[in-house]
């Protein structure tokens, strides 16, 4: 009698070991994956996260150990560097699976995009779709392609940008698992890279409603919390298991480190005593002393264990900031008919902590280039203070003119890093703070993983000691331990900070207002962090939906207050920002309540209730007048 899959492991791994050259990635790790598990793997770059995923998917093999996957489980892998048939179109790459429904949908999509068909192609495609009842799957396919902004399916894959390739690969993976068996193990390596926030939120919802078992690597902590219920951490060639969200993981990890530190302290005390005994012992040993000798080596291993705790606090001695930072005056910039900046005015202040968001292609990167003098506007002026030293972490990656060791690369920038309270730390010490161990510091640049190169690129930018730091998608390809180090470093940073990122958690921790690039040259200044903006945006969408769905006797138009376009203005205090946010929440609610009262008063209402409604309507009118006046004061 067959055993139910629900009562068995999807995957069983025993004593798995894998090394990269002489470097052990993980050693003798054992774990099980059950149906419905949703697991996130956390580790430093270079610790073997991607390698473990490839071993589970059959694309790599371990040095030793066993991997068993139930025969009824279909394994699907979404990897960081997707492989395509470069000579084929997006359509042919996505619909590559040998499945009748896949073929029917592919033929139907091909017929839809055909321009020279006499009708036969479409007729045959429709007949096949009806015969296989494939319309439900076609709807799901269209949803996936639409949400990931994939169009022009006849375009050759080899013409796509890196971000487009990632989205096509993600669509291909999600479509593939839609046609497979019900028992699916989906393995994903950084699925949110190159997705905007709407795409990430859609993917969260999609993965939660699909009946799949999931194991993934991600740096996006909000995505991790929304999708996963288990966290596995690869640390020092071992693996630790945690249940719950990221915050729970951090708490449990801190408790584990405290416990291990206490164990190590005890072992050190015992080690000193045993070491003295070992030195006094004669060469010939009894059985009893041999047993004690063996135990000594166990104690020694614990006593010499090193716990890496990435709590970094580094007060940098920043280059002095003068009174003038940077100023935009009536700046215009276009590419053909596409407008990027339209009369943009803004004056940056000391200590500015600004986030930039907007859809791809809205002009964010061009804005950064103009600010740094790397591109010129069509008209207008940009004045940058003489004391400003820009530090630019770009998406282009690490610039390597020749292969050299990591420590040599950093020392070519500077030998030491100045500290705010006096003194310096060496290049080697700075590297350790950013999780490059002494051994790794002598690794050649060409041998570093992609994530390690990103970490070194970031370190090189910071080591130059800038006072105006620009980070363009810094979280892509950085691991969570490094992000934690970076966030703590930036929290103490005293210069100006400008961040372009789709990482909601990262932005929430570090910025206090946003430039929202809305397209057609319009830039809006929003006083709050990323989550504040999304809440406000969704509230505006809900208000629009409520009004559209309500049958009113007279035409009513209610709009959430539109935040003023960016002007050269005094920066709001934290208290004023929160007051403005509350006003933007209160005013639409009062408008809705006022209209609801008006509708009630039209009908047959007892006199006493009518008086109450009338009094409340008068009160709301007064409240709205006061709040609108205050909103105008703050927004101007």
CATH architect. name of the largest domain: 3-Layer(aba) Sandwich
CATH hierarchy class name of the largest domain: Alpha Beta
Query: Helicity range of the residues?
Result: 40-55%
The whole-angstrom Rg is: 30 Å
- CATH H level, superfamily name of the largest domain: P-loop containing nucleotide triphosphate hydrolases
Remind me, CATH topology of the largest domain?
Rossmann fold
Beta percentage is 15-25%
Describe the strand arrangement of the main beta sheet, using strand numbers: 5-6-7-3-8-9
Mean pLDDT: 80
Structural class: alpha/beta
Which assembly state applies to the chains in this document? single chain
Instruction: Report the uncertain regions.
Output: 550-569
Number of continuous helical runs: 19
Please give a structural write-up.
There is one protein chain. The protein has helices at residues 49-57, 90-94, 100-113, 120-132, 135-147, 162-178, 197-209, 221-227, 246-280, 287-303, 364-371, 406-411, 427-433, 450-463, 480-491, 504-510, 530-548, 574-602, 607-635, and strands at 9-20, 23-34, 38-42, 64-69, 74-78, 184-189, 213-217, 230-235, 238-243, 326-335, 338-347, 353-358, 379-384, 390-393, 416-418, 424-426, 468-472, 496-500, 513-519, 522-526. The protein has 4 domains: 86-180, no CATH class; 249-303; 326-526, Rossmann fold (3-Layer(aba) Sandwich), CATH 3.40.50.300; 530-635, Helix Hairpins. The chain contains 19 helices and 20 strands. It is globular and about 100 Å long. The longest helix is centred in the middle third of the chain and has 35 residues, at 246-280.
């Amino acid at each position: 009698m067959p055993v139910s899959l629900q009562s068995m492991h999807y995957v069983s791994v025993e004593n798995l070991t894998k090394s990269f050259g002489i470097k052990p990635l993980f050693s003798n790790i054992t774990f099980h994956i059950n149906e419905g598990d949703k697991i996130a793997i956390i580790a430093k770059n270079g610790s073997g996260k991607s390698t473990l995923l490839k071993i589970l998917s059959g694309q790599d093999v371990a040095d030793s150990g066993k991997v068993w996957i139930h025969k009824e489980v279909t394994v699907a892998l979404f990897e960081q560097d997707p492989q395509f048939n470069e000579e084929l179109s997006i359509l042919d790459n996505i619909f590559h699976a040998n499945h009748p429904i896949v073929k029917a949908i592919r033929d139907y999509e091909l017929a839809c995009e055909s321009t020279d068909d006499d009708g036969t192609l479409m007729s045959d495609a429709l007949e096949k779709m009806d015969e296989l009842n494939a319309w439900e799957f076609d709807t799901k396919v269209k949803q996936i392609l639409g949400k990931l902004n994939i169009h022009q399916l006849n375009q050759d894959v080899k013409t796509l940008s890196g971000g487009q390739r990632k989205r096509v690969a993600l669509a291909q993976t999600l479509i593939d698992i839609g046609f497979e068996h019900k028992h699916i193990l989906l393995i994903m390596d950084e699925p949110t890279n190159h997705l905007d926030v709407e795409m990430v939120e859609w993917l969260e919802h999609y993965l939660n409603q699909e009946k799949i078992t999931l194991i993934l690597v991600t740096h996006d902590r909000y995505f991790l919390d929304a999708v996963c219920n288990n966290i596995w951490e690869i640390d020092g060639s071992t693996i630790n298991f945690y249940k719950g969200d990221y915050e729970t993981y951090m708490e449990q990890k801190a408790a584990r480190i405290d416990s291990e530190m206490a164990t190590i302290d005890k072992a050190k005390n015992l080690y000193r005593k045993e070491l003295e005994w070992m030195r006094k012992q004669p060469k010939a040993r009894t059985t009893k002393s041999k047993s004690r000798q063996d135990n000594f080596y166990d104690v020694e291993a614990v006593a010499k264990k090193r716990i890496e705790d990435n709590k970094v606090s580094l007060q940098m001695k920043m280059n002095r900031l003068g009174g003038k930072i940077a100023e935009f005056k009536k700046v215009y910039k276009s590419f053909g008919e596409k407008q990027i900046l339209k009369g943009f005015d803004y004056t940056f202040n000391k200590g500015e902590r600004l986030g930039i968001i907007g859809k791809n292609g809205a002009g964010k990167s061009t804005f950064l280039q103009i600010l740094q003098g790397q591109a010129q506007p069509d008209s207008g002026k940009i004045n940058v203070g003489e004391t400003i030293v820009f530090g630019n972490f770009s998406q282009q990656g690490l610039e390597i003119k020749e292969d050299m060791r990591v420590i040599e690369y950093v020392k070519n920038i500077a030998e030491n890093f100045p500290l705010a309270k006096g003194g310096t730390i060496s290049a080697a010490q700075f590297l350790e703070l950013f999780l490059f161990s002494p051994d790794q510091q002598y690794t050649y640049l060409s041998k570093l993983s992609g994530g390690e190169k990103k970490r070194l690129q970031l370190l090189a930018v910071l080591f130059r000691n800038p006072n105006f730091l620009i980070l363009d998608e810094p979280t892509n390809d950085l691991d969570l331990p490094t992000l934690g180090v970076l966030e703590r470093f930036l929290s103490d940073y005293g210069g100006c900070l400008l961040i372009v990122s789709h990482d909601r958690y990262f932005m929430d921790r570090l910025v206090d207002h946003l430039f929202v690039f809305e397209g057609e040259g319009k830039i809006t200044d929003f006083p709050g962090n990323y989550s504040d903006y999304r809440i406000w945006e969704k509230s505006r969408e809900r208000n629009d939906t409520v009004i559209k769905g309500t049958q009113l006797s007279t035409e009513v138009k209610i709009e959430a207050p539109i935040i003023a376009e960016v002007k050269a203005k005094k920066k709001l205090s934290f208290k004023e920002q929160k007051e403005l946010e509350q006003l933007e929440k209160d005013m639409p609610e009062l408008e809705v309540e006022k209209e609801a009262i008006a509708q009630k008063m039209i009908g047959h209402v007892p006199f006493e209730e009518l008086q109450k409604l009338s009094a409340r309507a008068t009160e709301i009118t007064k409240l709205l007048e006061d709040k609108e006046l205050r909103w105008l004061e703050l927004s101007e």
